Every structure is written in C-alpha cells, then in structure tokens.
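ok posting inputs for the copper (II) ion job
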Amino acid sequence: MLVLKRLVAFVVTYVTVFIGGAALAASGQPEPWQLGLQQGATPVMDNIIWFHNCLLWVIVAITLFVLALLIVVAVKFNAKSNPVPSRTTHNTTIEVIWTVVPVLILVMIAVPSFRLLFFQLNTPPADVTVKATGKQWFWSYSYPDSKFEFDSLMVQTKDLKPGQPRLLAVDNEIVVPVNKVVRILTTGADVIHSFAIPAFGIKIDAIPGRVNETWFKAEREGMYYGQCSELCGKDHAFMPIAVRVVSDTEYTAWLDQAKKKYATDDSVRPTAVAAADGAH
Ligand SMILES: [Cu+2]
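and the output
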C-alpha cells in the first residue's frame, strides 16, 4: 500500500514538474527538470518540434511491434513448448514484406525530412544581417549594413543582475526586430566554434577561413539564449549567445544608439577621432 502511495506521489510530482517545465521552456532558456525541447520561437523550430514528435510515435510503434514479435518467439518457440522445431526455410511473401515495408516507412519519413532541410537551408531575403565571429572564448557580432561591431562576453556569476541566467547572460546581446528575417553569417577567428540557439532551431559551425550562413525569424519578443556548440578549448562552456528580440521601434532606437556606441568607422565617431588627434 505504501509502495502504491509513493508511486502515485512520484507520478503526480513528475507530471507537475513536466507540465511546469514545458510552460517554463517558453522562456528562451533551459529550465530545471525540463523534458523535451525548448518551445520554438521560429517557424523552423516549430517544424523541428513537429517532426520530432511525429518520429517519436513512429519509433514507438516500431519498437512495440518488434517487442511483441520477440515475446511471441520467446514464449511459443522455446525448447520446452516447441520441442520439435519446424524445418521450414524461406518464404518469398514474408521476405518481400519485411523488405518493402521498412523502405516505405523510410520514404514516408524522408519526405517531411527533406522538406524541413530545404526550409532551413534556403535563406529567404533578409531584413537584417548579423555576422557572428567565434573567438576563444567569446563572440563578436557585427551588423555589416550599419557598420559596427561589438564583443559579447559572459557575465560572471558574481556580477549577475536579478533575472539574468547564470552562464547564459552576456554584457552585450544581439538585438533583432521581431517577425523579421535575420540572416546570420558565422566564421571563426581562431578555431571552430558553433553558433546555436535552441529556441530558434539553428546550429551552425563557425569555421576559420570560411563564412557559413543560416537564418531565423523570431515570432515572439523576449530573450533567447544559446551556447557555443563545438568544443573549442578551455572556456568553451563560457561563451554563451544571447539574443534580444524587440519591436520595430525599439530596434530602430537601439540601432541608432548602437551605431554611435560601437562605431567601427571613425568618421561616425567624432569624439574618438578628436581624442586620438589630441594624443598626437
Ligand atoms: Cu566552443
């Protein structure tokens, strides 16, 4: 009886945590006790989640079917219940079935799989381009259309402000407008890094000497976090990615201010030029 009570308590706790975790997973970062994927914030991630859930049912059905066959074999055809084994060998019908059926299942899986792959890999015309350069061990982001670049470093645990997640918050986050196509270009300055944001369904290597491209269209405002996902050395775990998705007006305001703050073109940063002149 006690065992049953404990079992019920366990199941209730588990279900509560699971449902709670699913709700929290919408916050653009991993949550304690989270099961499954983070809630999607882009059409690509919504598709990935849908495909993942479909495959889960397919694989559950196949596994149960194989398990049932194994049980039948073990029970009906063991040495005790079937002392004189049949000498039957080869059955064309069944051999054709167990070849054709798996092929059909794979073809059925391949169709949505390839459709999703092309959806991910064809970047639609972009509204904003952000270039992410992986460095040991932080990210630099540049907005080539607006000619500025800045570094993004992890906030140390002791410096965290309320609401900032440990190991994920950064000093300067990427800011992008909501419902706009953002093209991400990645490259590495030293070794291979990987730019990944689970809620956006993107993960792409940042390789020295070449530029990779991916894209996302965030459909909800908020903070979204990711991490470098290619082992790149000692502080690989401490170079998070943070993206703030904001409204169009907030984005324009941020862009104006960022152009001055992070300007790489000296002509748009008169104070810096004046200061440099003064030093001569
Ligand atoms: Cu890394």
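notes: The chain has a mean pLDDT of 89. Helices lie at 2-24, 43-76, 92-121, 248-261, 270-279.
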